[in-house]
Write a structure and sequence with these properties.
Blueprint: H1 5-11, H2 13-27, H3 30-33, H4 37-57, H5 61-76, H6 81-102, H7 105-158, H8 160-169, E1 173-178, E2 181-185, H9 187-193, H10 197-200, H11 211-226, E3 232-239, E4 245-257, E5 260-269, H12 271-315, H13 324-349, E6 357-359, H14 361-371, H15 373-377, E7 382-387, E8 394-396, H16 398-415, E9 421-430, E10 435-442, H17 471-481, E11 485-490, E12 496-503
Parallel strand pairs: 7-9
Antiparallel strand pairs: 1-2, 1-5, 3-4, 4-5, 6-8, 9-10, 10-12, 11-12
Length: 506
């Protein structure tokens, strides 16, 4: 059955809006759950109509107006950026099941691309607008702080006690530098860095700055001493007593302190904001990858299947001469490799959706070893398994974990030498508070170069001649989505070891 996208949206408007509102109340977050239903119906209806004008008429004016409206509304209410992004994403989640039932396959793919582009544009524009307004609020707050500091400088000349009392009350870290050392700091500054006031006074600012940010911070303050400081706000990595490196924003300026021209700094922890910005960038990148893989799936998969089928037919031709049979076999293998690469790209681009169940970790590992038995024989490898009995069941997705462990085993096979050994071990661990299942997969290869240890889980990074560099990235993504952790280390005298930690929740 063929249905025009505009007609489909018009016919299903009330159904989509009702389901969208229901999911906003139940599946996004506490803030949406507390909003009045009447308000959600109004905002969802406006969002639906704005998307309709984009999809049906290519008119973006309504979506621009709606983004301005919803940004102000949600920012004023203190909503998280990620929650509003999820609310936009529900449009696709609600609509796709209806679209599948009411359109042909080829029309569904075409409409899906349109909807994905519409959502990607909307979320990207909204995120930029939200972030810009958020930054404007921060800058406005900083400007107010700067004005406040100027206004209170006169009072400081009259009463240093009043000045110190006032500074101690603010939640941002505050310090004063004279002759290169800190002569005053409030308790917030001390708490931010994990030191007592006695440990802070008399030290240079560089003692509280991570090594890779020291040149920048020290340079700014040295320049401020030589000439009149132009108030400026900048970011750097602060260094705590415990060795943590945290993203921090500082407002630097000059003031008169105890009748001496001094440099000051107002510090604010922006770790969460930095993480949010990273998530926004990651979401944009994933949306872009999603568009590319959708196009690849449509444009490459069909001709690739045709080539593979015809090559397989040719292999059955008894009249092939000389090396023709070998050449065709090579071609078939390369086509299969291309299909595997395409599938890896698609797997990476798709959002993770779990079918959770109570599963035995040892059963998954045994299944993976059995599936890869033929692959193992290509290098005449031996798999040594040591699976601890009695490990409690995990609440997890069997297929997703199987995919992660297969990728880790394939990586071990690739790193191993001929006639080598691969160890697979599982065990139960507990610290009295939490418990987890630990899985170790190790090989006897050359190990991971030290310079690559921090990069091997990054998408598209690979040290092998073949492959996309997505296997380990997908494995890490799946394990972390289960609340677990994946780590790698080199063994002595040779080989590498991947450790998986999966939480066991009662």
């Amino acid at each position: 059955m063929w249905v025009d996208l505009a007609d489909f949206l018009s016919n299903n408007r009330s159904i989509i809006i009702r389901e969208w509102v229901r999911r906003l109340h139940t599946a996004v977050g506490e803030q949406y759950a507390q909003r009045p239903t009447e308000e959600l119906f109004i905002t969802v209806a406006e969002a639906f109509d704005a998307n309709y004008y984009v999809l049906a008429h290519g008119d973006f004016s309504y979506i621009h107006k709606f983004i301005d409206y919803i940004t102000n509304l949600r920012l004023e209410a203190g909503f998280l950026l990620s929650d509003v992004q999820k609310a936009f994403e529900l449009y696709r989640t609600v609509m796709f099941p209806l679209l599948v039932k009411q359109t042909r396959t080829e029309d569904f793919l075409e409409n899906t691309i349109k909807i994905d582009k519409c959502l990607a544009y909307t979320i990207h524009r909204f995120s930029d607008h939200f972030q810009k307004m958020h930054q404007n609020k921060i800058m406005e707050h900083n400007r107010r702080l700067e004005q406040e500091v100027r206004a209170r400088t006169a009072e400081l000349r009259e009463s240093e006690l009043k000045y110190k009392s006032l500074v101690e009350e603010i939640t941002d870290g505050y310090f004063v530098i004279q002759s290169g050392v800190i002569v005053f700091a409030n308790q917030a500054f001390c708490r931010m860095h994990g030191y007592s006031l006695k440990e802070v006074l008399g030290k240079g600012i560089e003692a509280f700055v991570a090594p890779d940010s020291r040149e920048k911070v020290v340079g700014i303050y040295k320049k401020g001493v030589k000439k009149k400081f132009v108030p400026r706000t900048f970011e750097f990595l602060r260094l705590t007593k415990q060795g943590d490196r945290l993203t921090t924003e500082i407002l630097a300026n000059n003031i008169w302190y105890e009748n001496i021209l001094s440099s000051i700094g107002i510090c604010r922890d922006i770790t969460e904001r930095a993480k949010m910005e990273q998530k926004v960038r990651e979401a944009e990148r994933m949306a872009y990858i999603g568009q590319i893989t959708t196009s690849l799936s449509h444009e490459i998969r069909n001709p690739l299947s045709a080539v593979k089928m015809n090559l397989q037919i040719l292999t059955k031709n008894s009249g092939l001469l000389g090396n023709d049979q070998r050449r065709i076999d090579i071609s078939v293998r390369e086509v299969i490799r291309l299909e595997r690469i395409l599938n890896e790209l698609l797997d990476y681009a798709k959002p993770l959706q779990f079918k959770l169940g109570n599963i035995h970790i040892n059963s998954i590992l045994s299944s993976c070893i059995e599936v890869l038995e033929i692959k193992c024989k290509e290098k005449n490898l031996s798999i040594l398994s040591s699976l601890e009995a009695g490990i409690p069941k995990l609440r997890a997705d069997w297929e997703k974990l199987e995919q992660a462990f297969v990728n880790l085993l394939l990586n071990a096979f690739e790193a191993s030498h001929l006639d080598g050994e691969v160890l697979v071990r599982s065990q139960y661990s507990s610290d009295g508070v939490a418990s987890w299942a630990e899985v170790v997969i190790s090989d006897e290869g050359n190990g991971v170069p030290e310079k690559d240890l921090g990069n091997i889980f990054k998408p598209f990074f690979t040290t092998h001649n073949k492959g996309t560099g997505l296997g380990l990235s997908n494995a890490k993504r799946i394990i972390e989505a289960h609340g677990g952790r994946l780590a790698v280390e080199n063994l002595q005298p040779c080989g590498s070891c991947f450790r998986v930690y999966l939480p066991i929740v009662p």
